[in-house]
């Protein structure tokens, strides 16, 4: 396939997965926040992030948060209710990352590029705080980015950039499985066969397959999730018996982000 056509198909496939405008903002918007910062990736991309640093003194937990497909760093911070988390857990440090194509970052998305974005964030946190004890928390599509990142560092011998523990909130099993749950996506399959096939080849995120690269992982999923049904997490757990799965009665796809019991578990766990 010619490079020009491949890039065009990739962009259309990304639109099918990620949508178009809900996760984009201008740089001027982010400049008003003191938490705003930028990182440089291995391939020279500049990516935005919010870094929240709690009260001065000993650091209790360092968190790299990977948001889902319809978010960017500001909306993610609102869903997480960062002001409340900082009030309750003053010693935490939280980096909310925007991947390429999200927020005010460059709009050229790629599967390998997302892993480089996470790698840059992990390296930054390790260097800034002088420790490898960093936890990674993904939500929804952010879970797929997390497990794909674990595969990336394993295949490139970069295990020193592994998180101490990975928490997945409302993950889907595979991109094909979740697309089959969406009737609208099935219409795209019938209408745009070429894009559909390209999507499944180039953007084929598979948490069931990639979970084997995560050595210390815990999943939380709400039984009231209508976006990504609970059965997806069951499929992931069945692929790796070491995975701990916590079901949350009646919790939905978005409300899981501000669930107090989850954050108490994550931030207070020894």
Automatic annotation (TrEMBL):
InterPro entries: AB_hydrolase_1, AB_hydrolase_fold. Pfam families: Abhydrolase_1. Residues 62-150 form the AB hydrolase-1 domain. This is ABD12. It comes from Enterospora canceri. The lineage of its organism: Eukaryota, Fungi, Fungi incertae sedis, Microsporidia, Enterocytozoonidae. The gene is ABD12.
């Amino acid at each position: 396939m010619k490079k020009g056509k491949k890039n065009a198909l990739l962009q259309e496939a990304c639109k099918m997965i990620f949508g178009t405008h809900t996760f984009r903002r201008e740089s001027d918007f982010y400049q008003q926040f003191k938490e705003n910062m930028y990182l440089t990736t291995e391939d020279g991309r500049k990516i935005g992030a919010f870094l929240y640093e709690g009260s001065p003194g000993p650091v209790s937990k360092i968190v790299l948060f990977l948001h889902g497909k319809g978010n960017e760093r500001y909306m993610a911070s609102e869903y997480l209710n960062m002001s409340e988390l900082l009030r309750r857990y003053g010693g935490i440090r939280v980096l909310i990352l925007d991947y390429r194509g999200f927020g005010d970052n460059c709009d050229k998305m790629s599967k390998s590029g997302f892993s480089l974005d996470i790698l840059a964030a992990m390296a930054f946190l390790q260097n800034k705080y002088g420790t490898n004890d960093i936890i990674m928390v993904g939500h929804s599509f952010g879970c797929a980015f997390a497990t794909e990142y674990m595969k990336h560092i394993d295949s490139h011998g970069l295990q020193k950039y592994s998180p101490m523990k990975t928490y997945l909130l409302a993950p889907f099993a595979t991109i094909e499985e979740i697309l089959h749950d969406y009737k609208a996506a099935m219409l795209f399959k019938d209408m745009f066969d070429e894009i559909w096939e390209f999507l499944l080849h180039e953007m084929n995120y598979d948490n069931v397959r990639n979970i084997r690269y995560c050595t210390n992982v815990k999943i939380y999923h709400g039984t009231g999730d209508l976006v990504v049904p609970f059965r997806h997490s069951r499929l992931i757990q069945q692929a790796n018996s070491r995975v701990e799965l916590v079901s949350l009665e009646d919790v939905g796809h978005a409300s899981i982000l501000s669930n107090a019991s989850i954050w108490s578990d994550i931030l207070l766990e020894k």
